[in-house]
Amino acid sequence: MLLVTSRTVGTAVALAVASALSVTALSAVAAAPAVAAAPVAAGTAPAGAASAATSAPPPVRDEDRPGRFGDRLIVTVRHAGPGRDGTYELLCHPAAGTHPDVRGACAAVDRNTHWGSEPFAPVPEGSVCTMLYGGPATAHVTGTWAGRPVDARFDRGDGCEITRWDRMVPLLPNLGS
């Protein structure tokens, strides 16, 4: 008979389990040669095994890998000043397009692409931002990045928006902080 207690309920719960294995069978199992464990399918763990990977992020999906789905962005910049305003096409992986700094712009977006987060996400609602004004410049970025549609607007209306803009330089022009 096997006695199992549970602490999750706060009281001891005893379960009587009749054993179908004889002492001979248990001895045979203990004497058997070790067998290599079969590979575990992604996202599953053996029953009763505590996984140290539960705090690790899930594996990278194909759609999160750069260059798999034709990364193409159209960047429209307004009120940034002469030589900075305009509409530019950016293709990455491989780098091409009419953007003034194709390789730098692709590197900026790659640098800000992380699994589980959106590189073009707006400033979260309720963020506390400094009351800085970075000027009238605006940008609109559309297209596809890492297999996902992009439709993002940028401005420099407060400290959070300035930081968000600066994080994407040179995709967006460097206007200083």
TrEMBL record:
Q: What are the protein's GO molecular function terms?
A: serine-type endopeptidase inhibitor activity
Q: Where in the cell is it found?
A: Secreted
* Stated name of the protein: Subtilisin inhibitor domain-containing protein
Q: Where is the composition biased (Basic and acidic residues)?
A: 60-69
Which range is the signal sequence, renumbered to this chain? 1-30
Q: Enumerate the transmembrane spans.
A: none
Domain Subtilisin inhibitor as annotated: residue spans: 87-151
Naturally occurring in which organism (per UniProt)? Streptomyces shenzhenensis
Q: Which InterPro entries does the record cross-reference, listed alphabetically?
A: Subtilisin_inhibitor (IPR023549), Subtilisin_inhibitor-like_sf (IPR036819)
Record's superkingdom? Bacteria
Sorted alphabetically, the keyword list is: Disulfide bond, Protease inhibitor, Secreted, Serine protease inhibitor, Signal
Major localization class: secreted
Could you say which protein family the record assigns here?
Answer: Belongs to the protease inhibitor I16 (SSI) family.
GO CC annotation: extracellular region
Region annotation Disordered: where it falls in the sequence: 49-69
